[in-house]
User: Which sequence fits this backbone?
């Protein structure tokens, strides 16, 4: 078993490396296919200045050579130097800004998970009564209103609250303390929370009247115990299953929130890099995120193997 | 049955509430831990917009300064940071007059210039700023290995261009240090505006020893720079925040009155900045037209200033383009009204409808250039435009005009511009404009390759002299992306570049202005401006047309209630 | 014992032997019944039909050019019954007129407000402001319109976005450094809405033979949902935007679901090495960070002059989103292969292609339909997201996403420019989500015969 396990992990990791190579290649050629030129600037350059810059960035080489050099650097974990922030290594950019995105993402997932389970259970208990309708209405909003609208509106709401209170209850934008994170994380987790609420509600409803609950009830198990031991625990399982992919999606999907709330995360960086056609940052970010996703999927798969014995590793 | 369900509900609810309490407790703990982590990824700011007690303010920057290695910097954000922390030979006072910087006095001649440096100019490590620092910095800018995009601005210095092309060694640059405190510059050609150039960041000094110690990471972080300006940057968390403290070693009393300037936020989002201002977190913010209503409602004192940049439709003069026909260009000029565009479509009170290549604030001999040489007024005349169009049609031998390729950027204003002009030319001339919206670098690539008939573009000043606009349409200027070329224009520009008599020089600019209008080299749209609002306690804050976009060097805090 | 034929009596028609069960229904008929019983799904089905009608038939009923600009009616909120007075064509003004403290020359109307004033005592120039409130104790003069750094110019013509209503103009004295002082003069001005004969004709409000003359009033065009920042009709633009948003939202998922089905069916049927290889490739594509690659592809394909950018977005969506369906269909095919009826058919000598086309694909159709319904909201959101970061469709093509992005900027002053497009996005997304729920419930085999 132990050996089979090790072999399985190794195989998955190898596949992961192959996937990262695919991502890197796709990014490289997609990007070099973009019309335009990262070296151009508002002020036109003399051919001499231009040649100097091309040499500095290795753009004077044939494309395939550039690709090989790029793969070589990648293997050593070196993403190169940014084109627009010319004194910063892409590695530094990732190291400084990814933790921001990750922090925000983790918090958003936590909010979403706790909120989803709570609201879901509540709506199931109050099925077809007022609290159910109110919460499900909010869930519908969370699912169907575009995130940038929610983000902009909630920022406005914060301003209104602060003005009413006459002091800064919660910061409107920026990064640096716990309070800066709350609203953006909530907004970021909103649609996931709505999704989990629905999931929780339906799985809870399925279980509320299931045979084993009925059996427990007829045996005279106290209702509170039925709820926590039998219903909640079983209803949560499907929620846990979808959590893995959601974490990855949220951590890499914070563009809108980062833009609106002026948060120095990696997503905002990527959008700016694309607008500037910053080759190295675009490639670095994409490959890093890709690798991160691949790794997350592997980890989650392995964890399921431990948590749920029914899931058998291949 | 129903009752049982109700009973179950109650018990379940109690259980749920208990669980929720645990969950929230756990969440609070996690949030607190994450907060600890977050404080290391972005400096938290306390004190709000104005902190009178500590004589400090908090501001927001639009973008992270991408390049603080000033030999290579090109963008406005970097220039804002650099102009607060580093000082060149000369600088500008709060009325845009040239004042001494590191140089106490200077002399401008036909063949060169001499700068006498002050004794008490110091780097933030205590070393004096010497003439060698300038020689080293300037040579480095021209060194091909540096690959400085702004190297061209130094081309008036002898041999600069040849060095930059790699044809001469960098030691042959026409700049010498005569001892510690005299800097001698030799010109390639007469350059009467050289004093205005040296206030630009590319001409700032670098301490050679320190530069060597940075190991190629000069300007990469707060401690990878030496400062000699009114402020010292002590903290720089990339894309998040900065702290500038008053430089105790700065020689002058006229600048740097605040103890600390926190750059608390870096965000491009104008709405986020407005919200921060409303929340009392930053000392000033820009107001776009949609915000003015609210600003009036809040009884703010709204201010405005010119940004310096002129925007126009640049026409393509490359062979085979319809826009090479003068009557066609005339029709394009006459059929549109910049006043309507600025005041109705853009709704911008801070913009000025443009009538000339030269913005109104450009200086002439004594006063404003445009008061001494008024540009021909714009004529909005659709009937006349149609006549010119008919003439053009016959001259070109066309049955019908093909659609025009209209290149625009991807900003919101770029979208309005292209949609507005598309409608105007369709309505007034029956022309079809095909909009080609591209991101920044792609648009530049298309401009350089000449893939457009009309491109909406702008031109901002590098230095405070009419030439920064005047030489744009010379046949050798690579920024002349429509490739307009005429012997007449080149002749005027040569005079404007080298003429030492101010009156005759300004006459040359007037000729350029007239020719740009008569030949319809461009269709002027607007001079960009800013509406903005400043915390009433902050005085002396400036937005500049030339140099740093925002300038806090002369700012101070007025105690509330006191005069 | 012999039997005669007469011993055997025919039983007659045996219709009611099966009468104990309800009439036999096909899978689809059953599903349809189920869907009809689901009120929410039915409502959303009607909503979807309504949206499609709005998109396709709308422009025939509401015949207004979505690109027609009207600079006299910019950012108007919904409403009707707006009149304008006809005045003479605009003539430039040289600043002539009677001297005196701040006053209006001629008539103040939405074409122009002409102000003239005498130099304020001690002024080295003036700045002109306009406000919608009187200057209060805060000395909030309003928005600065112009400044003059000497006393040579003592007049200003305001043409900035003038709307009917009351304005408060102020001239404020500037000091020697061009800074604003407390010395000011203020004037209350009522502006009325006007238009010219030429403009009215050009906008089709009056005909060429119209008898109307200067001084008469004319009814302006009615905009039921207001206008946008260039005076374009919101309703017409929402219809035009619907074409883009729904086109991307519906066609892209159809294409990639179709491709996914083909890919998945092939892989599932071929099995073995080919299946392994094909699925590995699908895994690669799944691993690409979606939004990042969406942006990257969007700009890599590039759009030329006059193109809307809808096609590159479509292609990018198809390229990135097919694997989910492919995996699903492959899984179904693998399951179905083991089913008795398929094996029976195989034993009877059916060819592989026949098996796939006759037995397997039709049986995955339900799952595929549900997937399709759920992918549509995703595609619509993706379009809106790209528009938000400025990578959406190119102007002048409207889409709901780009319209809401423009609307966010003016959220406070003219909320209708955000509310309407955002509402359309939300309703569409909601309708497809609920319809998807309904379809899933209706097609779910487990729930068959239990309802």
Assistant:
């Amino acid at each position: 078993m132990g050996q089979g396990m090790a072999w399985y992990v190794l195989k998955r990791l190898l596949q992961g490396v192959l996937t990262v190579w695919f991502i890197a290649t796709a990014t490289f050629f997609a990007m070099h296919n973009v019309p335009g030129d990262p070296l151009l600037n508002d002020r036109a350059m003399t051919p001499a200045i231009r040649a100097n810059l091309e040499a500095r960035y290795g753009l004077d080489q044939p494309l395939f050579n550039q690709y090989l050099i790029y793969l070589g650097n990648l293997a050593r974990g070196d993403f190169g130097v940014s084109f627009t922030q010319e004194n910063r290594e892409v590695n530094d950019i990732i190291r400084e800004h990814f933790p921001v995105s990750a922090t925000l993402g983790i918090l958003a997932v936590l909010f979403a998970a706790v909120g989803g389970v709570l609201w879901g259970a509540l709506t199931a208990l109050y099925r077809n009564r007022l609290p159910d309708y109110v919460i499900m209405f909010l869930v519908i909003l969370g699912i169907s209103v575009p995130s940038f609208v929610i983000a902009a509106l909630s920022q406005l709401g914060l301003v209104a609250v602060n003005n009413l209170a006459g002091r800064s209850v919660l910061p409107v934008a920026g990064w640096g303390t716990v309070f800066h994170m709350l609203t953006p994380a909530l907004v970021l987790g909103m649609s996931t929370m709505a999704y989990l609420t629905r999931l929780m509600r339906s799985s809870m409803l399925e279980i509320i009247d299931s045979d084993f609950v009925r059996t427990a009830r007829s045996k005279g198990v106290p209702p509170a115990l039925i709820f926590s031991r039998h219903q909640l625990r079983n209803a949560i399982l499907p929620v846990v299953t979808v959590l893995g992919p959601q974490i990855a999606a949220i951590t890499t999907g914070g563009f809108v929130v980062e833009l609106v709330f002026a948060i120095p995360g990696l997503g905002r960086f990527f959008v700016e890099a694309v607008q500037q056609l910053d080759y190295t940052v675009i490639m670095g970010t994409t490959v890093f995120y890709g690798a991160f996703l691949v790794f997350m999927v592997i980890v989650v798969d392995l964890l399921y193997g431990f948590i749920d014995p029914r899931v058998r590793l291949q | 049955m129903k009752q049982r369900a109700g009973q179950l509900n109650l018990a379940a609810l109690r259980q749920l509430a208990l669980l929720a309490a645990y969950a929230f407790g756990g969440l609070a703990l996690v949030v607190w831990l994450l907060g600890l982590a977050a404080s290391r990824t972005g400096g938290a700011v306390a004190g709000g917009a104005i902190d009178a007690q500590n004589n400090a303010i908090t501001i927001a920057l639009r973008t992270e300064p991408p390049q603080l290695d000033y030999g290579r910097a090109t963008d406005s954000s970097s220039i804002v940071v650099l102009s607060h922390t580093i000082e060149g030979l000369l600088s500008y006072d709060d009325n845009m007059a040239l004042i001494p910087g590191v140089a106490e006095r200077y002399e401008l001649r036909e063949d060169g210039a001499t700068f006498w440096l002050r004794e008490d100019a110091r780097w933030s490590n205590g070393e004096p700023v010497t003439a060698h620092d300038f020689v080293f910095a300037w040579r480095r800018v021209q060194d091909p290995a540096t690959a400085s995009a702004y190297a061209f601005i130094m081309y008036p210095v002898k041999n600069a261009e040849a060095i930059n092309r790699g044809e001469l060694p960098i030691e042959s640059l026409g700049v010498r240090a005569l001892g510690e405190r005299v800097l001698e510059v030799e010109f390639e050609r007469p350059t009467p505006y050289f004093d205005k150039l040296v206030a630009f960041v590319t001409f700032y000094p670098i301490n050679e020893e320190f530069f060597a110690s940075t190991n190629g990471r000069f300007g990469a972080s707060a401690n990878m720079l030496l400062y000699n300006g009114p402020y010292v940057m002590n903290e720089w968390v990339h894309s998040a925040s900065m702290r500038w403290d008053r430089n105790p070693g700065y020689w002058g009393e006229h600048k740097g009155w605040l103890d600390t300037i926190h750059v608390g936020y870096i965000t491009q989002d104008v709405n986020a900045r407005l919200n921060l201002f409303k929340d009392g977190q930053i000392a000033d913010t820009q107001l776009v037209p949609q915000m003015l209503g609210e600003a009036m409602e809040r009884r703010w004192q709204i201010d405005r200033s010119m940004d310096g940049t002129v925007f126009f439709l640049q026409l393509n003069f490359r062979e085979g383009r319809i826009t090479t026909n003068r009557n066609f260009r005339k029709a394009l000029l006459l059929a549109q009204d910049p006043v309507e565009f600025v005041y109705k479509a853009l709704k911008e009170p801070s913009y000025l409808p443009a009538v000339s290549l030269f913005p109104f604030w450009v200086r002439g001999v004594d006063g404003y250039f445009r008061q001494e040489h008024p540009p021909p007024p714009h004529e909005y005349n659709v009937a006349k435009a149609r006549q010119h169009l008919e003439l053009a049609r016959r001259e070109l031998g066309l049955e019908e005009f093909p659609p025009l390729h209209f290149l625009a950027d991807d900003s919101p204003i770029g979208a309005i511009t292209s949609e507005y002009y598309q409608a105007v030319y369709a309505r007034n001339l029956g022309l079809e404009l095909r909009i080609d919206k591209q991101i920044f670098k792609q648009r530049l690539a298309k401009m350089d390759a000449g893939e457009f008939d009309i491109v909406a573009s702008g031109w901002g000043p590098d230095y405070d002299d009419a030439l920064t606009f005047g030489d744009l349409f010379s046949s050798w200027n690579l920024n002349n992306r429509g490739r307009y070329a005429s012997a007449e224009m080149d002749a005027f520009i040569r005079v404007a570049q080298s003429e030492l008599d101010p009156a005759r020089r300004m006459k040359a600019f007037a000729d350029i202005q007239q020719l740009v209008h008569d030949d319809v080299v461009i269709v002027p749209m607007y001079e960009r401006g800013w509406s903005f609002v400043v915390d009433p306690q902050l005085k002396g804050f400036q937005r500049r047309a030339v140099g740093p976009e925002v300038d806090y060097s002369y700012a101070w805090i007025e105690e509330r209630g006191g005069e | 014992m012999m039997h005669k034929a007469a011993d055997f009596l025919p039983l007659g028609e045996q219709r009611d032997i099966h009468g104990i069960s309800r009439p036999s229904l096909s899978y689809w008929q059953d599903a349809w019944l189920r869907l009809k019983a689901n009120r929410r799904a039915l409502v959303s089905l009607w909503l979807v039909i309504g949206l499609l009608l709005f998109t396709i038939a709308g422009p025939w009923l509401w015949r207004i050019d979505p690109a027609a600009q009207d600079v006299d009616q910019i950012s108007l909120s919904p409403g009707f019954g707006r009149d304008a007075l006809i005045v003479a064509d605009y003539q430039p003004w040289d600043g002539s007129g009677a001297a005196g403290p701040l006053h209006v020359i001629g008539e103040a109307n939405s074409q122009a407000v002409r102000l003239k004033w005498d130099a304020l005592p001690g002024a080295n120039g003036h700045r002109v402001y306009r406000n919608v409130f009187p200057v209060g104790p805060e000395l909030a003069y309003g928005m600065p319109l112009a400044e003059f750094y000497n006393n040579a110019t003592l007049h200003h013509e305001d043409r900035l976005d003038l709307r009917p209503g009351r304005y408060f103009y102020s001239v404020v004295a500037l000091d020697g450094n061009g800074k604003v002082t407390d010395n000011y003069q203020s004037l209350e001005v009522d502006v009325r809405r006007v238009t010219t004969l030429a403009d009215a004709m050009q906008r089709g409000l009056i005909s060429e033979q119209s008898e109307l003359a200067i001084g008469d009033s004319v009814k302006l065009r009615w905009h039921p949902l207001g206008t946008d920042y260039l005076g374009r009709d919101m309703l017409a633009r929402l219809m035009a935007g619907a074409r883009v948003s729904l086109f991307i939202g519906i066609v892209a998922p159809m294409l990639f679901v179709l491709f996914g089905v083909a890919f998945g069916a092939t892989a599932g049927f071929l099995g073995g090495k080919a299946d392994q290889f094909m699925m590995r490739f699908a895994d690669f594509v799944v691993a690409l960070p979606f939004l990042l690659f969406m942006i990257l592809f969007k700009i890599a394909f590039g759009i030329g002059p006059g193109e809307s950018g809808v096609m590159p977005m479509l292609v990018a969506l198809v390229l990135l989103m097919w694997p989910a369906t492919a995996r699903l269909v492959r899984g179904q095919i693998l399951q179905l292969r083991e089913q008795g009826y398929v094996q029976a058919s195989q034993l009877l000598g059916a060819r592989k292609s026949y098996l796939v086309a006759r037995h397997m694909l039709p049986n995955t159709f339900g799952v595929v339909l549900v997937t399709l319904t759920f992918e549509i909201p995703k595609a619509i959101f993706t379009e809106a997201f790209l528009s938000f970061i400025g990578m959406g469709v190119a102007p002048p093509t409207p889409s709901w996403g780009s319209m809401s992005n423009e609307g966010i900027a003016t959220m406070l002053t003219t909320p209708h420019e955000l509310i309407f497009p955002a509402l359309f996005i939300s309703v569409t997304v909601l309708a497809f989500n609920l319809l998807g729920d309904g379809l899933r419930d209706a097609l779910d085999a487990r729930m068959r015969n239990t309802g």
User: Anything to note?
Assistant: Chain B touches chain A through 90 residues (CB under 8 Å). The two ends of chain B are 78 Å apart (CA to CA). Residues 2-38 of chain B form the longest helix (37 residues). The first strand of chain B starts at residue 50 and ends at 51.
